[in-house]
């Protein structure tokens, strides 16, 4: 759609129609444009412009109205050629950053907060996937004697997650020996991933080796758990929009939230890109997404950890603000992930 040539005035008329329709959800006519905007031409000329934009496939009109509304092609042209890339106001950015810094230093908390923030900032529904290809790392461990033959393993992961496990021994071990084993393991395996650990554990024997194996199993389990989660927020406010008043349309947007196969395909599509992607009506690739738009971004640390973050809503979406919100939250998550996992390889 970017190759379509429009005059400056027709670009302005298209921008006005989309702006008005996004705000009011009502078809936009030539008379209302002429009254509200000083384009220096008559309503009749604007009417001709609307007809030309409709002929170009950028606008259409409901049977019951003389006004026009954007088509999916019109929205695509707008996003590619006319949209102002709007940053969130500084006070909103400051407030959002403060909320992230107040949250617990855990991926789960950050992603819950991300979806809540995006749903509020965009008036859409937000989703985020837990990071994939994640190499969780050991931060610190402690061995604490509970009873003569019962030891508590306390393991802190780089994500901030705390794992605890009881170890039953055949013979008692004094706390001094437990502390010595803890120190030895911390020196050798702090910062290690599940991939690194088997080699690092080769030099250990006995109880210390047993603890190391438990740490490895914990890392593997934490990676399995973290790859499968989708965080969601704000679906109810999207379903209140006039576009979603009938069953099929409701079903389509719920599918985006609930159908893991579709999310997998979208994830694979977006992971190839480095910036925010706007996907309107499925872009011809996802047939179940008629009348739906997604504004999506990847987040994470290249070559270490990456996830998907974005907003789902009707095509009648404030794209400039939504893109700005998604980009800002993704940038914050990138910063936080770098703190946990370090720079990319």
From TrEMBL:
Its Gene Ontology biological processes? negative regulation of DNA-templated transcription
Domain spans labelled HTH deoR-type: 39-66
- Keywords for this protein: Repressor, Stress response, Transcription, Transcription regulation
Write down the SUPFAM superfamilies for this protein, in alphabetical order.
Answer: GAF domain-like (SSF55781), Winged helix' DNA-binding domain (SSF46785)
Residue ranges occupied by any Heat-inducible transcription repressor HrcA C-terminal domain in the UniProt entry: 108-323
Q: Which InterPro entries match?
A: DeoR_HTH (IPR001034), GAF-like_dom_sf (IPR029016), HrcA (IPR002571), HrcA_C (IPR021153), WH-like_DNA-bd_sf (IPR036388), WH_DNA-bd_sf (IPR036390)
Molecular function (GO) terms listed? DNA binding; DNA-binding transcription factor activity
Pfam families linked to this entry: HrcA, HTH_DeoR
Its job: Negative regulator of class I heat shock genes (grpE-dnaK-dnaJ and groELS operons). Prevents heat-shock induction of these operons.
Q: Which family does it belong to?
A: Belongs to the HrcA family.
> HAMAP family of this UniProt entry?
HrcA
Q: What is this protein called?
A: Heat-inducible transcription repressor HrcA
Which species is listed as the source? Caldilineaceae bacterium SB0675_bin_29
Species classification: Bacteria, Bacillati, Chloroflexota, Caldilineae, Caldilineales
């Amino acid at each position: 759609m970017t190759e379509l040539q429009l005059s400056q005035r027709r670009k302005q008329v298209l921008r006005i129609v989309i702006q008005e329709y996004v705000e009011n959800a009502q078809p936009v006519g030539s008379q209302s444009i002429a009254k509200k905007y000083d384009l220096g031409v008559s309503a009749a000329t604007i009417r001709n412009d609307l007809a030309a934009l409709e002929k170009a496939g950028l606008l259409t009109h409901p049977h019951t109205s003389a006004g026009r509304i954007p088509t999916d092609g019109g929205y695509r042209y707008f996003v590619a050629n006319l949209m102002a890339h709007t940053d969130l106001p500084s006070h909103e950015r400051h407030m959002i950053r403060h909320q992230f810094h107040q949250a617990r230093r855990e991926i789960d908390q950050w992603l819950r907060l991300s979806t809540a923030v995006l749903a509020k900032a965009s008036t859409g529904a937000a989703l985020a996937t837990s990071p994939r290809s994640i190499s969780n790392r050991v931060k610190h461990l402690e061995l604490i004697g509970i009873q003569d033959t019962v030891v508590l393993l306390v393991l802190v992961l780089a994500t901030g997650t705390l794992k605890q496990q009881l170890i039953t021994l055949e013979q008692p071990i004094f706390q001094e020996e437990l502390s010595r084993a803890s120190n030895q393991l911390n020196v050798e395996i702090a910062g290690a991933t599940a991939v690194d650990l088997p080699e690092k554990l080769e030099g250990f024997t006995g109880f210390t080796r047993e603890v190391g194996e438990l740490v490895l199993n914990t890392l593997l389990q934490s990676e399995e758990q973290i790859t499968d989660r989708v965080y969601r927020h704000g679906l109810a406010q999207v379903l209140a929009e006039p576009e979603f008043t009938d069953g099929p349309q409701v079903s389509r947007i719920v599918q985006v939230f609930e159908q893991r196969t579709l999310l997998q395909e979208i994830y694979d599509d977006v992971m190839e890109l480095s910036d925010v992607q706007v996907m309107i009506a499925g872009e011809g690739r996802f047939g179940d997404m008629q009348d739906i738009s997604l504004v999506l971004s990847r987040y994470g640390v290249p070559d270490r950890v990456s996830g998907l973050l974005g907003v789902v809503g009707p095509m009648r979406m404030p794209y400039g603000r939504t893109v700005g919100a998604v980009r800002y939250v993704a940038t914050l998550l990138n910063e936080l992930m770098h703190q946990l996992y370090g720079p990319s390889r």
